[in-house]
Amino acid sequence: MSEPLYGANRNSARRITVKDLAAAKVAGDRWPMITAYDALTAGVFDDAGIPVMLVGDSAAMVVYGYDSTIPITVDDLIPLTRAVVRGSRRAMVVADLPFGSYQQGPAQALATATRFMKEAGAHAVKLEGGERVLPQIEALVAAGIPVMGHLGLTPQSVHAMGGYRVQGRGEAGQTLLRDAKSLQAAGAFAVVLEVVPHELGDAVTRSLAIPTIGIGAGATTDAQVLVWQDLAGLTPGKPAKFVKQYADLRGYLGDAVKSWADEVVAGTYPDGEHQYS
Ligand code: KIV
Question: In CATH, what class is 18-246?
């Protein structure tokens, strides 16, 4: 595929692959990745031409209502992944490996990733961490499973990091850069950079031959990702600094439901147009 990932090929009948993402890096084309957790919204994002969807473990918070990503399980995420695969036809669907499903070592990582590929139809998996997960990445790549890395603010390590804070400042930036190169050497096809200084996002992007996907990592990463409920204004509360809200879905949906409920109470819904004779 030589045209840009986002836009020109929206109606392409085949799925985006890791080869397309590699070609986009060479061509200097930027692309969007979005989270998705169900078939209906996956269809909306697919129709919008989004080339990559992530069934993130952020589902723990935005779908299941937990206050961190730590409690979510493989069994929680597999049905969501299956729904996103079913609801899309063009996007590459990446499944997040949840906390506790790969940290034990390569054998555990392979067993978990195999479930996502076989039971949910995922096209790739993502896992968090640098040097400590290299054996896992190598094992998955050797088994033919495309792997996306994730560095910087890695929410599964929130307790070790002492909260959701900017990562990679000062000396830690050099460690992150080394980790990014190691992930690439281990065979990762892309790496997410979460909440790091934009200078570091830029340096990593220029140092790697694989695409970087930024979330709070500045404007020069090869791709950007956001949790869809954040960008659409559905998530309650003050958004993180890197989130730009492109809609007020919470307000819009609330208004729609209130209008319907008011009409139910007033007896004006259903009216003649919305009933059978
Ligand atoms: O789980 C998730 O949604 C993620 C993205 C924010 C990168 O990991």
Answer: alpha beta
